[in-house]
Structures are given as structure tokens and as C-alpha cells.
UniProtKB/TrEMBL annotation:
It comes from the Bacteria. Pfam families: Cation_efflux. GO terms for cellular component: membrane. InterPro entries: Cation_efflux_TM, Cation_efflux_TMD_sf. The chain crosses the membrane at residues 12-31, 37-58, 79-100, 120-138, 159-178, 184-204. This is Putative Co/Zn/Cd cation transporter (Cation efflux family). Keywords: Membrane, Transmembrane, Transmembrane helix. It comes from Marinifilum flexuosum. Signal peptide: none annotated. One of its GO terms (molecular function) is monoatomic cation transmembrane transporter activity. It is a multi-pass membrane protein. Residues 13-219 form the Cation efflux protein transmembrane domain.
Length: 309
């Protein structure tokens, strides 16, 4: 099965996992009255919806380039990653703001709606089990495609965050029972809000990282030094005597890389066939490291010294 097939199949299973977690989360909220659980359920519901979009994009990216889109459909994959990053970011911000207001109301009024912690503990255990299984499944699928799927990598982060949040909520409500009849009993009514705020801060870096990477891809920023270090030593030996590699530019959209090689031909003249052979050899080297890629090889004596860093 090719990468698109593996990705689409995996995302279909993940979709149903999100649906299950959303239903359980919203149902548990009805019994527990915990906003932390409600936010978790809503997040899973939105994730399920976004997964439907992701499946369609996965199929679209697998299509061959067209005349109107000569470099393929990879930008849709990056847009999906950006959307998913914004979703995770938005959920964390929403959770942080809503629970901050809840704590503020408690400080001002001295009262807050009671939360049924018993059902939350069972919910937490179930969510951690589901998220752990989904995480392991996604990790296995990522391994099958050599970690080339940006969408699956993003979902792996999202599921990991979900497991951490759900597990932490359960642990807190389990421990809160020991605070009853102590000097810290005043914390009990807002325990879920406090843990949500702590987790929001702890997990905030993940969506920021996703958004940063997606933004760098959309502005075609060359930040792929590791790939350049792999490719360059393999290209240099195939260049004719007197030829030099002036520059290697590497950009990425989703799983697809875009390579530009600038080769200085010096004063050595080659036939068109020899030039095409060099181009084909470089493209084969690139394909061995980046199966989803487009490569341009330009022979020019012009330097890139006037480019700004």
C-alpha cells in the first residue's frame, strides 16, 4: 500500500476514535458538570470534523500535478497542518480563558457549580486507554511511511496532548478527595480549573511549534539543513571536473520537497546529453532521500553571494 493509502486508512480509524471520545466526553459532562471534560469533548468533536477534511486532502495530495498546479497539491497538506495547529491553539486558549473566569468568579463570589468527580475518574481512565491505543497506532503508521506524513505527525501530537489532559484531570480529581477537611479544602471546587490552566501552559509549545513549521512552509522558507547535509556529499562526486556546486535550495510543503541546485559549469563545455545525464543523476539521488520531491538543476556561472541570509 502506498503512502496515501496508509495515511487515508489510518485517518479513517482515527476519525472514529475521535467520534467515540467526543460522545463519551460530552456525555460525561452531562453527569459531571466539569468544564474541563466539556472542552475535551468539544475538542474531540472538532478533531473528528477536521479529520474528514484531512482524509480528503490526503487523497488529493496523492494526485499527479496538473497544468494549473505544476508542483502538485502539497500546499493543501500544509494548510491542513496550519488549520490543525490553530485548532489546538484555540482549544488551549479557550480552556485557559474560560477556566480563568471560573477561578475569578470563585474568588469574588466564594461559590462555584459543583463537579461530580466520580464519573470524571472513570472518564479519564477510558480516555487515556483510547488515546494511548490511538497514539501507538499512529506511531506505527508513521513508521510505515518513514515519518513523511506531516498530517499523521500532527495527529500524533494532538492525541498525545489529549491523553495528557484527560489523564491529568482524572489524577487531580482522585487526589482532590484527600484535600477534604484540610486547610486546602478551598481548592476542591476549582481543582479542575487549576489543572486545566497548568496543562494549558505546559502544552502551549506544541501548537506554537506546529504553526511555526506550517508558516515557514507557506512562506517557502529554506530551513532544511539536515536534508542538505545528506544530499550535498552525494551530488558533489558526480559533477565533472571543473564544475562546482554553488548553492542548494530546499523548500518543503507537507511531505513534498522542492530542490534547486545551482551548478557553476566553469569553462568546461558539455553536450546537452551529458548535462541531462547529470540532471537525471541528481534527481535520482534526491528521490532516494525524498521520494516526494521536485528537483530543478540549473547550470549558471552567476553567484548567489548577493542573496541576504
Amino acid at each position: 500500500m502506498n503512502m496515501s493509502g496508509i495515511e487515508t486508512k489510518a485517518m479513517s480509524y482515527i476519525l472514529w476514535a475521535y467520534v467515540l471520545m467526543a460522545v463519551v466526553g460530552i456525555g460525561t459532562f452531562a453527569f459531571s458538570n466539569s468544564e474541563a471534560v466539556l472542552i475535551d469533548g468539544v475538542f474531540n468533536f472538532i478533531s473528528a470534523f477536521s479529520m474528514i477534511i484531512g482524509i480528503k486532502i490526503s487523497k488529493l495530495v496523492a494526485k499527479k500535478p496538473t497544468k494549473s498546479l505544476p508542483f502538485g497539491f502539497a500546499m493543501y497538506e500544509t494548510l491542513y497542518t496550519l488549520f490543525k495547529g490553530l485548532l489546538i491553539f484555540g482549544v488551549l486558549v479557550l480552556a485557559g480563558v474560560s477556566n480563568s473566569f471560573k477561578i475569578y468568579d470563585y474568588i469574588v463570589t466564594g461559590s462555584v457549580e459543583q463537579v461530580n468527580g466520580g464519573s470524571i475518574i472513570y472518564y479519564s481512565i477510558l480516555m487515556v486507554i483510547i488515546c494511548s491505543l490511538v497514539y501507538l497506532y499512529i506511531a506505527a503508521q508513521c513508521k510505515k511511511v518513514n515519518n513523511q506524513s506531516i498530517m499523521l505527525q500532527t495527529e500524533k501530537i494532538a492525541v498525545f496532548q489529549n491523553a495528557i489532559i484527560s489523564g491529568a484531570i482524572g489524577v487531580v480529581f482522585l487526589l482532590v478527595g484527600f484535600l477534604e477537611n484540610t486547610s486546602l479544602a478551598f481548592i476542591v471546587p476549582i481543582a479542575d480549573s487549576i489543572i486545566v490552566l497548568v496543562l494549558c501552559v505546559f502544552l502551549f509549545n506544541d501548537p506554537v511549534k506546529i504553526l511555526k513549521n506550517a508558516f515557514n512552509e507557506l512562506i517557502i522558507k529554506d530551513i532544511h539543513n539536515a536534508m542538505r547535509e545528506k544530499i550535498t556529499p552525494k551530488v558533489l562526486p558526480i559533477l565533472p571536473l571543473g564544475y562546482s556546486l554553488n548553492h542548494v535550495s530546499i523548500n518543503r510543503l507537507g511531505r513534498t520537497y522542492y530542490f534547486l541546485f545551482l551548478i557553476n559549469p566553469s569553462k568546461v563545455n558539455l553536450s546537452l546529453t551529458e548535462i541531462e545525464n547529470i540532471q537525471d543523476s541528481i534527481k535520482n539521488i534526491v528521490k532516494s532521500e525524498a521520494p516526494f520531491s521536485f528537483t530543478d538543476v540549473i547550470f549558471s556561472s552567476k553567484s548567489v553571494d548577493d542573496w541576504e541570509d
